[in-house]
Structure formats: C-alpha cells, structure tokens
Amino acid sequence: MRRRGSRRALSDPSYPGRVPVLVYTLLRLVLVAAAWGALVLAGMSPWLAAVGAVVIGALLSYLLLRGPRDGAALWLQRRDEERARRRRDEQQRSAAERDAEAEDAVLDAAAEDRGTPGSTDRSTDRSTDRSTDRSTAGRADATPPVS
C-alpha cells in the first residue's frame, strides 16, 4: 500500500510530482503573510494591513517569483496541449468508430437482403409491404399498410 508522501509514489509515472502552480501559489501566500505581519508590527490595523499586504504581496511576487511563475505557466501550457491532443485523438477515434458502425450497418443490410443464414430475414416483409404499396398507389381511399 502506497502512502501519498512516500518515495515510491514519486517514482510512479502516473504521479504528477511537484505541481509548479501549487508551489507558486504557496510562495505568493508566504509573501502576503510576511507583508501582513510586517505591516501589523509597524502599527497598522489588521484590516488595513490585509489590504496593503495583498498589494505588496502581488508586487513582490511579480518581482521575486519570476522563475516559479514561468514554470507554472509552462506546466499549464503543456497540460493544456496534452489535453487538446487527447481530445483530438478521441475525436478521431470516435469518427473511425462511427465509420465502422456505418459500414457494419450497410453490410448487415446487404446480408439481410440476400437472406444470408444467421441474419434476420426481413426481405419477405419488405416485398409484402412494397406490393401493398404498389397496389394502393394512386388511390385516394387507400389506407397505409399496417405493420
């Protein structure tokens, strides 16, 4: 049984490893918390310090966290490209499946018309319906055949 934080989980190919977006977010939160603490220690009210800390944290993260921000952006871009590739592959696969199903339907219909053993023989039903349709064609009082 694997624990989430074990080294085995890190070697598992399905394990995403370090997620740069999470790292970047945590670093930004640390900057905001540090700015808030510094402003409160400077004598600012906690509510006003919170607003100031968010502004200061955003500025500091822009200046100091370029590497983690670029890593997160690159990770998100790769993830989006991978999802788009999988979606394209799935659409192509489903188009091929639809084509195969249509081909199977045509072959099944042709086999039924020939009366191939093992298929449902509907050719007699169709010929009966066709003869009824021909005999009543053009008559105003004709009622459609009952199936």
Highlighted features:
single chain, 147 residues, mainly alpha, 5 helices, elongated, membrane, transmembrane, DUF4229, transmembrane helix, DUF4229 domain-containing protein
Brief digest:
This is DUF4229 domain-containing protein. It comes from Cellulomonas marina. It is built from five helices and no strands.
Overview of the molecule:
The protein is mainly alpha-helical. The protein has one domain (7-114). The chain has 5 helices and no strands. Helix 2 crosses helix 3 (46-64) and helix 2 (20-41) packs antiparallel against helix 4. It is elongated, with a radius of gyration of 35 Å. Mean pLDDT is 77; it is low at 8-13 and 127-132.
Write the topology of this structure.
Elements: H1 7-11, H2 20-41, H3 46-64, H4 66-114, H5 123-136
Pfam family, one: DUF4229
InterPro entries: DUF4229
Organism: Cellulomonas marina
